[in-house]
Each structure stands twice: as C-alpha cells, then as structure tokens.
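Reviewers of the previous submission asked for a worked example of the structure-prediction workflow described in the proposal, so we include one complete record here. The input consisted solely of the amino acid sequence. No template or homolog information was supplied to the procedure at any stage.
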Amino acid sequence: MLRALGLGDLLAGVPALRGVRRAFPGHRIVLAQPPWLTGLALATGAVDAVFPAEAPGRVVPGLAHWPGPPPDVAIDLHGNGPESRDALAALRPRRLLAHACPDGPPWRGQAHERDRWCAFLHDYGVPADPLDLRLPPPAAPSPAPGAVVVHPGAAAASRRWPGERFAAVVRCLRAAGHRVVLTGGAGEEALVRRVAGRSGLPGDDVLAGGLPLGELSALVAGASLVLSGDTGPAHLAVAHGTRSVTLFGPVSPRLWGPPPGPDHLALWRPGPPGDPHGRTPDPRLLALRTGEVAAACLMLLRDGRGRPRPSGTEAAHVH
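From that input alone, the workflow returned the following structure tokens.
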C-alpha cells in the first residue's frame, strides 16, 4: 500500500488500512510511507512493515528501490493521479487497485478523507469502516499528564491562527486553573516561544523543536484537551479519544474534520474553499475570535470533569 504523506494523512487513512488488513489476513502487508511515521503505522495493527517512501511533490521516487518480488496486490491510497499509480505499476503487481486505473472507481472530491478511501476500497469489494480510527494507548507515559496541549503551528500559513490569539487563549485557560503545554514541530521554535512569552508559560511547559512522534502521541493521549489548527495533533487527539478543539480555515471540517460527537469541536466559518498551502492566514480562519475559541475549550474541559453538557453542543462543526 502506498500513502507517502504526513501524520494527519496516515491517521485519516487508518480505517482504510484496517479494511485491507481484514480483507487480506494471510498476506504480509507493507505500507510505503515516510519512515518517521513507522512506529505509529505499526501501532495501527494494520501493517506488518513499513517501506520508506517520501513524496515531496506529486512524484513518488522511493518505490524505485523496492527490494522484494512483485507484490500480489498493490493499492494506491496516495492520490488519484498517474504519478502514484505508475510508481506502483512499475513494481509489476498481479493486481493494482488505483483511482487512475482505466477501470478504477471515481474520485470523490467532496467526500471526507476517511470516507473517500473507505468508499474506494468498497468499490473493489473491500469493506472498511470510516469510524475504525482509534489507536491503542501508547506504551510510554505522558510527559505532562492531564495538561491542555496547545499546538499553534501548521505546515502552511493559511492554516495557522495568529500566535497572539493562541497566547490569549492560553492565558484564559491558565487563569481557569488548567496546566497548558505548548508543542511545535521542527522549524516552529520561534512561533512556540513567542506564544509562550506572550502567555507567561514557564519553560518546562514549552516543548518546542518537534517532539519524537512516540512522545507526542503519549502527550496527546494523556491530555485533558488538545487545541490546534487543522494539522497532525488534531488527528492524534481523535485517534486517542482525547477531547479537542480544532480551528479550520481554507478547508471545511466536513472534508478533514473529526467525526461527529460531543468530544470534538471544529470551529469554522463557511465559505468558498481556500488554499490549504497558502502563504497567508485564510480569512475564514482569521474570522474565528479569541473569545469563542477559549469558550469552546473551557466548555469541553468543564464537561470532562463530569458536569452536565449544555443542550445544543453535540455537533462537531460549530459555525
């Protein structure tokens, strides 16, 4: 199987991976993906091994180094174009499952990412449940059990809510008595430290520079809440059943958001789709106010302590 994408992509693809596992119980299943995601991929229970493959653009060059024999089945869970299809076809599999094949299923452009890949497999006779996405508890303990995890970064500026607004929410959460821990990926050190400085967080609660994935997973699994933009930690929160508030801008949560339910709130302003890879914050993201984000976090944190949930808050997408 090929899915040489990032953290959120892997987690959104878990239901499809597990569908393949159940459909081919006697096969050795190898997932071609970035090697830094190996531990998480194996934790899904859906794959037996990981073959390192990166896809910085549309081209997937890593499969050219495949050392094994032609696979019995090759499955393109990466995209809908000839680039990923051809990379798998070059392995000469006995059977190729791909959108871009002449007899392949249609691309469902407006479907949620989880639903799209499950429907793709269903068209090939492979059942998969879009809600089969939970991960087992991490073996390692959380470095900050019970803390609120705030992740202000995102790969693209269009999905990055302003740092000063994150800082204002952090101040509100701390004033309410919650411990807050900041995280950030590699290259986001300046952003994380800026948010920490504006919110008065002590250094021990600033985890900048990119935690190892296993440690980040344990941190999210043990958190009381995760606040982030549309990026990897939001998907980790869903996978571990940790309550979350996710801020959406250029992409609707109906395409990438959490499943419906009371534990996850996706804040978003409806409008025409934007550029998820844009260089400036999306207007819909900027329309989200500090007060409403803080209120959403405090509501979920209050509910997590056993107090009754107010009526009308069980929708996952709040406009």
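The chain has a mean pLDDT of 92. We consider this example representative of the routine output the project will generate in years two and three.
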